[in-house]
Amino acid sequence: MPVTARRTSLLRAVRQTAESSTDRPIGRTLAKHRRTTKPAAPRAAAAVLSVGLAVGGGAALSLTSPSTASAATTSTTATSTPRGYWTVSSKPLLRFRDRGPTVKYVQKALHLGPDGYFGTSTVRVLKKFQTSWGLKATGYTDKKTWGRLTWAAKHKVLYGPYGTSSKSTFRAKVLREAAKLKGTPYRYGGTTTRGFDCSGYTGYVYKKAGKKLPRTSRQQYSATKHISRKAAKPGDLVFFRNSGGGVYHVGIYAGGNMLWHSSKPGVPVKKGKIWTSSVAFGRV
Fold first, then answer.
1. How far apart are CA 136 and CA 69, in angstroms?
2. What whole-number distance in Å separates Cα of residue 45 and Cα of residue 48?
3. Are residues 279 and 252 in the same domain?
4. What confidence tens digit (pLDDT) does each residue in 144-168 have?
5. Coiled-coil stretches, from where to where (predicted)?
6. Against a cut of 0.85, is the pTM above it?
């Protein structure tokens, strides 16, 4: 290629470069043509948002989301509520020096005076109760203790078959056998599971528990040691007397003014209230 043509091509290239560079914006003009980048969208607010604002001399303004505030309030309330006020269904770990209505429930189940204070007497009787049911004698209400305690309260039974006196064990057996026969029909002169009269029922239950009773309610009354109502324990016998002092009915004391009995035709074996004060208690 001739030198002149080469120079002409070179000059054209230089002009084109200059023109193109002149068309491009420079400095502030360049900034106007740049594509603006939008700031990232703000993230979701945190549970507690602290914003440092100059409010009243530079005080910090704290904003709390409503859901978190209510949750925090609930948590604080639950934590501040004494265990003695928690529900029985929550099975609280009650122990020495706790107070409240749930402590009263425990004391009633343990046949103690319900003053609502978990004192030394409550600890002592609870340990005895735990031992009698084969539980670890901790003196406080863990989940296993609650399970047995609610069952005992429902069935009016205190001590189980382990680690207690033979009399307590026998009475516990009596109550278990009595409850098994719930719904058995009344039958005059009946002494079997096909039907019971009052003394036939008590005689059958006591035989199952390990002791034999005479046949009639009067004979059973004569065969027992007579005790006061205050001294009576669930599993003892309760006798009903007429105005002349004669015995006409017998049942098994279930505690709390209740008894298991087979009362009359058309009414099956059940647990009911002691309906009169003319009663006597007997222990085998």
1. 41
2. 8
3. yes
4. 999 999 988 887 778 776 665 666 6
5. none
6. no
Structure tokens given for 220: 């059973």
From the list 233, 229, 232, the residue with the least C-alpha distance to 277 is: 229
Distance, in Å, from the CA atom of 15 to the CA atom of 25, rounded to the nearest integer, reads 18
H or E element at residue 122: helix 120-132
Question: Which amino acid, residue 20?
Answer: S
225 and 182 share one domain: yes
Q: How many domains does the chain have?
A: 2
C-alpha dist (Å) from residue 39 to 36, 42, 43, 51? 9, 9, 12, 20
Tokens at residue 61, please? Answer: 């303004």
Query: How do residues 46-86 score in pLDDT, each as one tens digit?
Result: 444 444 433 344 444 444 444 555 555 544 445 689 999 99
Question: Closest by alpha carbon to 82, among 73, 91, 94, 72?
Answer: 94
Torsion of CA 196, 202, 205, 210, to 10 degrees: -140
- Could you give the C-alpha distances from 97 to 47, 50, 113, 258, in angstroms and in order? 38, 41, 16, 32
Rounded CA separation 78/120 (Å) = 27
State the residue range of the domain holding 122.
Answer: 82-155
Contact (CB, 8 A) for 274 and 238: yes
Beta bridge partners of 253: 259
173/254 same-domain check: yes
User: Is 196 within the bounds of a domain?
Assistant: yes
